[in-house]
Structures are given as structure tokens and as C-alpha cells.
Amino acid sequence: MNEDVRITVWVRGRVQRVGFRWFTRENALEIGGLTGFALNLDDGRVQVVAEGPRDNCHRLLEWLSSADTPGRVDGVTEIWGTPRGGYDTFAIR
């Protein structure tokens, strides 16, 4: 079953000023079926919120955790939940 879900991810490492949000958006759009955003946080992390089919959210999470991202990812923390809606596309904030 591939029901719609919401995932919130906090990415730690050298993930700001390296195009991380832009590449996250591009990957989310390439995966397809995802809405949400990527946002730089004041503490140096990037927050990613994605809603869509569970498999697609898993694919985005795998990419966020991989060595294929720009910069350097030291770790990710994720929380899964129920979609809240309200996003038209996947945006950079």
C-alpha cells in the first residue's frame, strides 16, 4: 500500500551555502508526486517537509541520507506523519 504521508527531515552537516535546498527541490520534482519545502534553519541544519506517496517520500529520504547530496551530510532525523496539505508544489524557502 502506497498511501500518502508526510515526512519532516532535519539534515545536519555542511548543508547550507552549497545548493542543498535547490538540489533537494530538484530531486523531489524528479521523484514526482511530492509537495512541500526545503528551509535553511538558523542552527545550520536544513529542514525538509515532503508530502506524497510513501514510496516517493522514502526515495527522497534515501537521497537526503546519501553521499550524492551537495556539501556533507553528517546525519538526518525524520518524523513520519499524516499529510496536512496546503502545498501546491515543492518550494525553496
Any overview of this molecule?
By secondary structure, this protein is an alpha+beta fold. It is built from 2 helices and 5 strands. Helix 1 packs antiparallel against helix 2 (54-64). The longest helix is centred in the N-terminal third of the chain and has 12 residues, at 20-31. The radius of gyration is 12 Å and the shape is globular. The mean pLDDT is 97.
Q: What are the key terms here?
A:
globular, 2 helices, single chain, 93 residues, five-stranded mixed β-sheet, alpha+beta
Percent range for β-strand residues: 35-45%
List the total number of helices: 2
In N-to-C order, the SSE pattern is: EHEEHEE
Overall, the morphology is globular
> Compute the gyration radius: what is it?
12 Å
> N-to-C terminal Cα separation, in Å?
31 Å
**Largest sheet, spatial ordering of strands:** 4-1-3-2-5
- The helix fraction, in percent, is 10-25%
Q: Structural class, from secondary structure content?
A: alpha+beta
Q: Describe the main β-sheet briefly.
A: 5 strands, mixed
Q: How many strands in all?
A: 5
| Average residue-wise pLDDT | 97
Uncertain residue ranges: none
What layout of secondary structure does this protein have?
Blueprint: E1 4-14, H1 20-31, E2 35-40, E3 46-53, H2 54-64, E4 72-81, E5 90-92
Parallel strand pairs: 2-5
Antiparallel strand pairs: 1-3, 1-4, 2-3
Helix pairs in contact: 1-2
